[in-house]
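#struct-pred

JT: dropping the chains for the assembly here, can someone run the whole complex?
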Amino acid sequence: MPRWLAPIVLIIVGIALGLFYGWIIDPVKFVDTTPASLRVDYRSDYVLMVAESYHADQNIELAVRRLAIFGSASPASLAADALQEGRQSNYSEDDISLLQALTRAMQAYQPVSPLAEITPEGGTP
Amino acid sequence: MISPVSYIDTSPNTLRADFKDQFRITIAASYASDHNLERARARLALLGDPDAVQALTAQAQRMLGSGESFNIIQEVASLATDLQTGVASIVSTPTNSPLPTQGIVSQTASIPVTLTLSPDTNIETPTAELASPTVIFDTPTQRPTKTPIPTAGVPFQLISQDQVCNPNLTDGLMQISILDNHRHQMPGIEIIITWSGGENHLFTGYKPDIGDGYADYVMLPGVIYTVRVAQPGAPIPNLSAPACPDSNGQTYTGGIKLTFQQP
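RK: done, full complex below.
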């Protein structure tokens, strides 16, 4: 056997053992992940939950805050993505209706600035 | 730096604790709108909590302590209660939408409920009914059994009120146990304690080592309290910490124990 072959074989065996340990014996455990990293069907189910509660209370501000956990994505795009996923995953008609309603509400939603509520006293300057 | 790892396609059981809290709140809000208990149970199972009822009741207590919206706390506590009893407050028709099925940690909600009393509580009137056998809810598709559905609006009734003179307990300890009509302890039940110029809200279930339907409160000597179970219940007035004699003939502040049951 050539002398250069033994180190190569040992390297390959070492890599294999390392992969076996890292993939089988003690695989990486993901912890403290964020909702933005969730698989699309889990994200869609969460948006569906928001749609269900929005249907009951019609509190659009609360629905927006609940969708905000996904990070910087807009509520409208989150709802639209969930609606698309729901259609592809054969959600029930009731659930599709709820997601449609939430999507429409999010598309029409305009956040109100606190300053807009301050009305000047007297006539216009 | 150049190409750091980015995590994708994770599952809810890997979420950070505060995100899990938000998920539970949203599950509870969704449940409050449709009362689909099995669906709520399956969603909670995705979070990977060892005991979903305990997680919900503990979260409700944390939210109460941090001054969160009372409506939201109520939703979380109600879900915990309904999971505990295995019966939705209002029966609804489940929807057909499939929940995510791949890689779910557990789709079955096995909730062992051990109804025991901690030995150091030294309740003066222990009852055998409170040490009930273990009840296990097996699968989310289990149909309701012969257990009658608690009637909405039926007030909890005070079935026992006892003075507790035990120097080993905290002075002025008011111990409260809430039972359903089958004498099963009920977690997540709100209790309102009022006195002249003050009010406090408690929830049962945060000391599972004592009992799932247990809550306690420390009374001040000389203060008259009124206790009411909020779902609903008649107020129990004129409660105060009794004076108990010790072995040296001196007095110390004792406690009381109240047991409520839904008929």
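JT: nice. The CA atoms of residues 43 and 91 of chain A lie 14 Å apart. The mean pLDDT of chain A is 86.
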